[in-house]
User: Which sequence fits this backbone?
């Protein structure tokens, strides 16, 4: 008779795991754990536990994350001096993607804390939290839209920074990384917290000082200012754009300005909510930013920037309505010339144009003779020349 060994059990566990019969895979693991109490020569190894954990993290079941944590607990009870960080990281990644569960970000951070505790307790080099595990926890807080998500991101960043400065154990696997900093900036940008924009800019200042800032760093801070409730946010966003340009021209090739960054500045201007003076200044910033994008040698104008500028014209109140209408018309005609009139541009034209201007620009495309605007919902309704460079139109 051939007695089954651990490798044979693992083959069966992996077979069930890959066929998404995770319940059966875990049942076999539990049986193997039970058998090992009587026969020390037959016991689960790291592969046994990792196969079941990985299967749960691939599962679409709502409780899959918690089931994976339960298997992780069995693993740590069975192997008290466990040295593998990947099971932790894979479960953290699962929770970081579950926006439908309000506590997913905290579950991810709790797992990170457990990794840190094991690392501090045992000093196992392989148990150093993987860089992407830290990033996933911060991103989970950013995506959670929970109160204080920005502070939560900063808290995780503080743990990460403390670990980097630790002299107790070898942390050579980790290093100061701009992606972690950018994740915190993103968390702050989406948090809506008081002074989130200033806190995000403080992180940017550190990155600039260390010459590690990149385009995402600058764009994240601009978005943070755009989402803030502070007065003068358009001016701040415009200032950050020019810091980015100066940094790029000074030799930092990782912060090449993009059309998305220019668009973010225009969006900050579009949502400026202050007195007439501030809105007039915001309109001037939006106009200057779009003109600078037209003349930019680093990137090309796109429909998002032009549509956002049209939105700004529709939202901002300035004394001269004629100036707004001229700006809308000029921008739309330029979009037509470039062949980038897409659904976004058409939608912003519908909401931002006066009835008269809308009829002037789209009159021949609108059925009927009434004065009211009729929204154009399909790109095939407009001349092909206007949409020739739009990907969705080509599709």
Assistant:
């Amino acid at each position: 008779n051939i007695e089954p060994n651990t490798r044979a059990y693992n083959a069966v566990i992996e077979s069930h795991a890959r066929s998404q019969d995770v319940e059966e895979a875990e049942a076999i693991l539990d049986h193997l754990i039970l058998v090992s109490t009587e026969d020390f020569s037959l016991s689960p190894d790291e592969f046994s536990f990792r196969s079941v954990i990985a299967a749960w993290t691939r599962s679409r079941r709502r409780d899959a994350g918690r089931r994976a944590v339960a298997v992780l607990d069995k693993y740590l009870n069975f192997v008290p001096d466990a040295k593998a960080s990947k099971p932790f990281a894979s479960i953290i990644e699962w929770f970081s993607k579950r926006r439908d569960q309000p506590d997913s970000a905290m579950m991810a951070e709790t797992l990170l804390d457990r990794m840190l505790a094991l690392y501090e307790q045992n000093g196992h080099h392989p148990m150093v939290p993987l860089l992407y595990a830290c990033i996933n926890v911060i991103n989970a807080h950013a995506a959670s839209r929970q109160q204080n998500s920005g502070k939560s991101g900063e808290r995780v960043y503080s743990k990460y920074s403390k670990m980097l400065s630790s002299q107790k154990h070898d942390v050579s696997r980790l290093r100061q990384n701009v992606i972690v900093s950018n994740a915190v900036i993103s968390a702050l940008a989406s948090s809506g917290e008081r002074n989130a924009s200033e806190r995000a800019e403080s992180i940017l200042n550190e990155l600039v000082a260390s010459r590690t800032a990149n385009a995402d760093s600058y764009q994240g801070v601009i978005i943070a200012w755009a989402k803030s409730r502070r007065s003068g946010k358009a001016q701040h966003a415009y200032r950050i754009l020019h810091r980015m340009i100066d940094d790029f021209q000074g030799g930092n090739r990782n912060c090449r300005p993009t059309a998305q960054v220019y668009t973010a500045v225009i969006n900050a201007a579009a949502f400026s909510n202050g007195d007439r003076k501030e809105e007039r200044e915001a309109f001037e910033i939006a106009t200057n930013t779009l003109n600078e994008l037209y003349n930019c040698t680093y990137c090309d104008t796109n429909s998002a920037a032009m549509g956002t500028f049209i939105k700004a014209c529709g939202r901002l109140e300035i004394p001269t309505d004629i100036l707004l209408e001229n700006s809308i018309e000029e921008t739309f005609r330029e979009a037509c010339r470039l062949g980038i009139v897409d659904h976004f541009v058409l939608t912003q034209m519908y909401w931002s144009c006066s009835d008269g201007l809308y009829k002037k620009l789209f009159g021949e495309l609108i059925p009927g003779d009434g004065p009211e605007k009729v929204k154009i919902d399909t790109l095939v309704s407009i001349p092909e020349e206007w949409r020739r460079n739009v990907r969705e139109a080509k599709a």
Notes: The longest helix spans residues 104-122. The radius of gyration is 27 Å.
